[in-house]
């Protein structure tokens, strides 16, 4: 297999966390070491510090990309041109996220393109640009579920989209007792963590119904969520008025924190036109053997409902969700093998697609 030089464009968007996608990028780049050259370039105007990404060569921010209310492909074209003039042209561009794909679509021409999408914001103009790009260069798009494909087609995309299980290697180590102690929990506490890549657009109030019901029934409960989660302040005030001010704990839901909670709470839909809720955060929780309470409307709900560790639509059936949760054994392992793959399989598949596209 001929080594290829790949430019990875990775979304760094304001109002989105991105850490699940960034961990996937890091696992991929590390797993592909020795198989070509891989350059990572951030796209967007999010936080400067991105601890879960591999080392990057720079960033294309909004000041360089946005022109007249639209996206300009000129900054990306300049990057491609500089590398080509230096005798090291890129054989392929891999877009990680919808913002990166928008930028790539605005840059007509150049090398073949591969795209991985999870959580995303779609509109008709983007679909037109992507379709036009596919008529100029070879373009392949992959997502993690059939529901994601349906969402893209409903948004107007007329291209074929591949469904490929994402490659995960979540640390299945036991919970961190120091972190749990900082949350004020003990062995009998039920600890829920809010997960997702676009937590700023979540609705915390729609996610906490089951934990609140369990607390009302006398169980010791904690809900761990980042203060950046949508509706955090309102939810905290509401719980305080109910005399349950210690129920909600502010903490950054890092991967280490995710291994220290007992259950994951995940948004199904934001209810906003064009916004598609991602799958990666849910898969990370399942891979760490954490049951997931999933809100209604998730595009992958059909596949996820086949996993016995996921309760879909919990915000519409809180009593049933609570009973389901209490019926689970505390040491029950999660089998999510049909929804994800190991990293070596994931990277091997990508390397094969890279080689075919770059021919």
Explain this structure.
The structure is a single chain. The chain starts with a strand and ends with a helix. It is an alpha/beta fold. It is elongated. Strand 9, helix 6 and strand 10 form a beta-alpha-beta unit. The chain has two domains: 179 residues, 3-Layer(aba) Sandwich (Rossmann fold), CATH 3.40.50.2000; 162 residues, Rossmann fold (3-Layer(aba) Sandwich). It has a seven-stranded parallel β-sheet, with helices on both faces. A six-stranded parallel β-sheet has the order 14-13-12-15-17-18, with helices on both faces.
User: Do you know the CATH architecture of the largest domain?
Assistant: 3-Layer(aba) Sandwich
| Major β-sheet strand ordering | 3-2-1-6-7-9-10
Number of domains: 2
Low-confidence stretches: none
End-to-end CA span: 11 Å
Features:
359 residues, alpha/beta, Rossmann fold, 2 domains, seven-stranded parallel sheet, six-stranded parallel sheet
